[in-house]
């Protein structure tokens, strides 16, 4: 089963988890990391790292964030590059999470990523999809390349 780390500004992440719990009962392998005003990005990263390790059963983790480019998204992006089968989704909403919740058990992380982005388009995207739009910078005449 894919783990979920819901990370949003202020109490939005907890509100989403509360709604999901009301619909589905207690959620296993799911944690919230709230990004409160005044919380350092270092502490946010540490909290998200803990949540990643608590939710990962070895099948992967989906970071569910609210705003592209904001601190929770950036912290999730950095963590996702260090761990296999991690995806970062942005632009989440309760109806979307409710629809996607049953698929946590049957899809791998990349398929889940593609499905949630397709279902939530155009408001939902992923780190992977953003990277496809903006490929890495390549220096054409790199003097250090032999």
Automatic annotation (TrEMBL):
Residues 1-124 form the PTS EIIA type-4 domain. Its main location: cytoplasm. The keyword tRNA processing does not apply. It comes from the Bacteria. It is found in: Cytoplasm. Keywords: Cytoplasm, Kinase, Phosphotransferase system, Sugar transport, Transferase, Transport. This is PTS sugar transporter subunit IIA. It comes from Leclercia pneumoniae.
